[in-house]
Amino acid sequence: METSPSRHVPHLPPPSATANPPSSSPRSTRTLRKLQSAQTLSSNYAAANAPGLISQQRQLQHRSSGLLRESSATQNPPPPAQSHGRSRSNSDIATTGIVPTAPGPRRIPKKTNGGADANPKDDLETLVRQGTKGDAMGSLDKLRRLVLLDGVDADSDGMSPLRIYIWLILLNAPPLSTDTYLSLIHRGPSPAYSKIRNDTFRTLATDPLFKRRVSEASLIRLLNALAWRLHDAKQPPSSPSALNNLAASLGSPDLQHPSPIRKHAQGASTATATSTSSAPGGTEPGIYVQGMNVLCAPFLYAAKSEAEAFTAFHLLLTRSLPSYVRGAMDGVHRGLRLVDKCLSHIDPKLYAYLASKGLTAEIYAFPSVLTLCACTPPLPEVLILWDFLFAYGVHLNILCIVAQLVLMREEVLGSKSPGTLLRGFPALKAREVVGLAVSFVEKIPSREYGELVEHGK
Predict the structure, then answer these.
(1) Taking a C-beta distance cutoff of 8 angstroms, is the pair 204, 278 a contact?
(2) Cβ distance 420 to 200 under 8 Å?
(3) Helices 136-149 and 163-170 sit at what angle, rounded to 10 degrees?
(4) Among candidates 346, 343, 336, which has minimal Cα distance to 439?
(5) Which residues have a Cβ under 8 Å from the Cβ of 293 and sit 6 or more positions away?
(6) For residue 153, which phi and psi values (nearest 5 degrees)?
(7) How far apart are CA 131 and CA 310, in angstroms?
(8) Is 413 in contact with 403 (CB distance < 8 Å)?
(9) Measuring CA to CA, which residue among 226, 213, 198, 173 is closest to residue 379?
(10) Rounded distance between C-alpha atoms, residue 453 and residue 272, angstroms
(11) For helices 397-407 and 430-440, what crossing angle results, to 10°?
(12) Which helix (H) or strand (E) holds 116?
């Protein structure tokens, strides 16, 4: 590597023939050799300690940047860097074209104050994470409006970090210890274990998203634990601890309230609720019925743990739809009759055409009523539909089924065999279905809407 000549270390002048005439004596020869050796050592030292090309370039940059800083901030230029006779390091690499500038002002994120500039998604996340500020009912109403108008933010697969927590809030779920769920699993096969194993392998078998995320083992564990929980609930409480566990399972007392859309049925007769509670079997749920595996699937898909899915699923069955899982599934059959009644009020022509073909909801709508439309793909759309149902009441699933029929009205009326067409509903479009279902509420008479609210109890 070539080095630049030294400008700081003076060189010894070469011996001059006139100043130092050559001597033939040995002493003169030794003196001459000493002078030549000293000149060589001085040249080598200067070459080794002189600044290299890179160091010189950095010194020039420091000077230029110092001048720039002096013109802008009235600062003195930094002194040139001194060389120390070391090997080059990474810090010696030239950084041409970089002019140091003063740091810009620090950006402060805007606070979400619910104004026009607030992002509804951030507002929803803030409400879920920070909770209420003393007004539980007001916060719950706000949560419902955000779910209905703006929806839950999720990716293309329907996955959302907030969805399962929103569901648990809307279902008024109390905290559940993971040890409680594990203790139910460790009890082994429940009385319904064989029925569960006969159903789990075909749960949403054609849905790749579900198969990729949820295993059959998870389905078996959750359904078996739920069967034990429902089995225990049928036994009378025999100890104060059992009574305390029962009270804890009720969730927050401030949120024990009917659905807001239920207010539409205030003028309805209470005879429906009385007859429901006095039906054979009372309000005790069964242990397991076919179809519970599909109803359970969206919970496992959306939840982050089996314990969360278990809590939400258990509350849905025991509070909102206990008659769906009784032995005779009388709540499901009441819901099917309500599909026909609601369709007759909303679209009389479509209802009359289906009736003329002998097609009642008992024939084509049984899976949709039992599973809250979870049997209709795609699964991400089912999750959006369930956001609405948990916010405003699962009884509105009946109107969502009617909305799906209205959306395929032209195809049904133009078909000579609509029964074949209705064997499987088209791909679910949740937002269109929800919009129609909300518009149908005012078209239902108060008495029949009361039946709609109470049919799953």
Answers:
(1) no
(2) no
(3) 130
(4) 346
(5) 196, 199, 200, 203, 219, 223
(6) -70, 130
(7) 23
(8) no
(9) 213
(10) 10
(11) 110
(12) none
Residue 162 in tokens: 């907030």
Query: How far apart, in whole angstroms, are the C-alpha atoms of residue 362 and residue 329?
Result: 13
Name the percent of the chain in helix, strand, coil, to the closest 5.
Answer: 60, 0, 40
CA distance 375 to 368: 6
- Counting every residue written for the chain, the total comes to 457
CA distance 234 to 216: 27
* pLDDT digit string (tens) for the chain, length 457 residues: 444 444 444 444 454 444 444 445 555 666 666 566 555 545 544 444 455 444 555 555 555 555 444 544 444 455 555 544 444 444 344 444 444 444 444 433 444 444 445 566 678 888 888 877 778 888 899 999 999 999 999 999 999 999 999 999 999 998 888 999 999 999 999 999 999 999 999 999 999 999 999 999 999 999 999 999 999 988 776 544 444 444 445 555 555 444 555 444 444 434 343 333 334 444 445 689 999 999 999 999 999 999 999 999 999 999 999 999 987 899 999 999 999 999 999 999 999 999 999 999 999 999 999 999 999 999 999 999 999 999 999 999 999 999 999 999 999 999 999 999 999 899 999 999 999 999 999 999 999 999 999 999 9
> Is residue 66 within 8 Å of 32, Cβ to Cβ?
no
Amino acid making up residue 208 = P
| Helix (H), strand (E) counts: the chain | 23, 0
Q: Report the C-alpha gap between 399 and 403 in whole angstroms.
A: 6
Query: Using CA atoms, how far apart are residues 142 and 136, in angstroms rounded to an integer?
Result: 10
- Other Cβ atoms within 10 Å of 335 Cβ, number: 27
Q: Name the token pair of 53.
A: 């090309």
Cβ contacts of 248 within 8 Å, gap of 6 or more: 174
Quote the Cα angle for 154-157-162, to 5°: 30
Q: What is the DSSP code string of 319-346?
A: II-GGGSSTT-HHHHHHHHHHHHHHHHH
Distance of alpha carbon 160 from alpha carbon 147, whole angstroms = 13
Structure tokens at 350: 């479509």
Query: pTM score, two decimals?
Result: 0.69
Cβ contact 391:143 at 8 Å:
yes
Question: Residue 379: phi, psi to the nearest 5?
Answer: -65, -40
